[in-house]
Design a protein that fits this description.
The protein is α/β, with parallel strands linked by helices. It is 41% helix and 14% strand. The strands form five sheets. A four-stranded parallel sheet has the order 3-4-5-10, sandwiched between helices. Strands 1-2 form a two-stranded antiparallel ribbon. Strands 6-9 form a two-stranded parallel ribbon. A hairpin with a 2-residue loop joins strand 1 (25-26) and strand 2 (29-30). Helix 1 crosses helix 6 and helix 3 (67-88) runs parallel beside helix 4. It is globular, with a radius of gyration of 19 Å. The structure holds NADP nicotinamide-adenine-dinucleotide phosphate. Residues 1-6, 24, 31-34, 54-58, 73, 95, 97, 125, 144-147, 152, 182 line the site of NADP nicotinamide-adenine-dinucleotide phosphate.
Length: 289
């Protein structure tokens, strides 16, 4: 099985060159990020020009009770990929998260702003970033937020599922960010990969999200209102979605309140436009309904 971004990358990267796509159980090559010797061997045998790592330990709450496993997958494995990429003179493209920040304030974070993760997941993802930067000269690290797709586990699919079964829903309204589709992430990655095939000076961290901002509540309301138009028999009336503060919905891991990321560096470096978050959500809804 591939993750949300991994699945979309297989589509978007396929026209750019020979693609070797690996999951956890990939037969001929080891794709299990808990097997550090195995993934080093895979890189040596495949000898790629560019490695794109979309796998991660993404269970944010479970990571609080499995910090070693989260660290192995999110930090130690990317470090090995970075070391092996460096030996080959290859690029390493990797994904990170807004959860590396502490969520204070209300301004979109720059790549250069101080980090301060609140959770084990955020800390291990930050450690992965640092180890990649230390071990591999040619890297692209895309920090993104609130990823969704028509497949996989995500907020949009959960909300639609609840909307079919429940007549009331309470959703957090004080965490602000930008829902970002795996499709957009994969397409932007393909543009960036095309760019780095011919130049070495764009190495670095980039913030990459859809444009605009909302809360989880605003996102849920938009989803259910739009879904209701196409699918009127949904049980949940969007007016029955209640906005609640984060304290009213305790979770094992603390989440940042301010998940806004400033994407100007990405847009100007790669000459790209990032669409508003509503566009991608509307599109994925047509696939989900
Ligand atoms: N989802 C978000 O909201 C979000 C937000 C910000 C940043 N990101 C980052 O974006 C990237 C991709 O996220 P996503 O949303 O596509 O995640 P996802 O759908 O949860 O997919 C993660 C993938 O990683 C695989 N994986 C986990 N442990 C592995 C291991 N030991 N060896 C090999 N594969 C393993 C999973 O395989 P199994 O299915 O077999 O477990 C799954 O295919 C990650 O770096 C994540 O940190 C995600």
């Amino acid at each position: 099985m591939y993750g949300q971004i991994g699945w979309e990358l297989q589509r978007s990267l396929s026209p750019l060159g020979d693609l070797v796509a690996l999951g956890r159980d990939s037969g001929e090559y080891c794709g299990d990020l808990t097997n550090l010797a195995g993934i080093a061997d895979t890189v040596r045998r495949v000898a790629p020009d560019i490695i794109v790592n979309a796998a991660a330990y993404t269970a944010v709450d479970r990571a609080e009770s499995e910090p070693e496993l989260a660290r192995l997958v999110n930090a130690s494995a990317p470090a090995v990929l970075a070391q092996e990429a460096q030996k080959l003179g290859a690029w390493l493209v990797h994904y990170s998260t807004d959860y590396v920040f502490d969520g204070s304030g209300d301004q979109p974070r720059l790549e250069t702003d101080p980090t301060g993760p609140l959770s084990v997941y955020g800390k291990t993802k930050l450690e992965g970033e640092v180890l990649i930067q230390q071990n591999c000269e040619k890297h692209l690290i895309f920090r993104t937020s609130w990823v969704y797709a028509s497949r996989g586990a995500n907020f949009a699919r959960s909300m639609l599922h609840f909307a079919k079964e429940r007549d009331r829903l309470r959703v957090v309204d004080d965490q602000i960010g930008a829902p970002t589709s795996a499709e957009l992430l994969a397409d932007v990655t393909a543009h960036a990969v095309q760019d780095i095939k011919t130049r070495d000076d764009h190495s670095g961290i980039y913030h990459l999200t859809a444009a605009g901002e909302t809360s989880w509540y605003g996102y849920a309301k938009f989803l259910i209102e739009s879904a209701k138009v196409a699918y009127p028999i949904l049980k949940l009336d969007p007016r029955a979605i209640e906005a609640i503060p984060s304290e009213a919905f305790p979770t094992a891991a603390r989440r940042p309140l301010n998940s806004r990321l400033n994407t100007n560096k990405l847009k100007s470096t790669f000459n790209l436009h990032l669409p508003d978050w509503h566009d991608g959500v509307t599109r994925v809804l047509t696939e989900l309904l």
